[in-house]
Amino acid sequence: MVFSVPVRRFSSKNNGTKPMASMTNSGPIWWYLGMIKARPILTKSVTSAIIFTAADLTSQTITRSSSESYDLIRTCRMAGYGLVILGPMLHFWFNFVSRVLPKQDLVTTFKKMFIGQTVFGPIMNALFFSVNASLQGESGKEIVARLKRDMLPTMINNAIYWPLCDFITFRFIPVHLQVFTDTFSFSL
């Protein structure tokens, strides 16, 4: 089913003084916004998968030597994580936070950031490490060792990187677009 966004045309005159450009609500941006409204979880999940795929391919392009080939299995793991876990989790997270703390003022923004850093961030990091390690065939014992080794350094780096991303997201981005901006932030 193709979702159709209503076309809105503006008058070619501005009280008879200045001509205005005729505008229509069409094109890829309007289609995407329509899909977010019609099928929010699916759209945000596919968006996360696409961004994670592009980010992983970019990462491999930058870090691999010319003799190495792309690790397409790794790219599929990242795409799958974005599609099945990150997209839906972010959808529910941002909607939950906006219901519990509906304002976008400065104090509320800092509250949202604090909850994100202390609750959601650690959960998502542990989930990412665990799922990725599991898909690579690591045992439960190896996954626990990975979490013990990688969680603290990751959380320290998160405390440096994520506050700015979260501030922008929570303060300025509408809830229905927060998954897009946050997934993009994940991929940087």
From TrEMBL:
This protein's GO CC annotations: cytoplasm; membrane
Keywords: Membrane, Transmembrane, Transmembrane helix
Compartments it resides in: Membrane
Keyword hit for Isomerase: no
InterPro entries cross-referenced by the UniProt entry: Mpv17_PMP22
Domain of life: Eukaryota
Membrane-topology annotation of the record: Multi-pass membrane protein
TM regions (residue ranges): 76-94, 114-135, 155-173
Pfam families registered for this protein in UniProt: Mpv17_PMP22
Family: Belongs to the peroxisomal membrane protein PXMP2/4 family.
Full protein name: PXMP2/4 family protein 4
Species whose genome carries this gene: Mikania micrantha
Phylogenetic classification of the source organism: Eukaryota, Viridiplantae, Streptophyta, Embryophyta, Tracheophyta
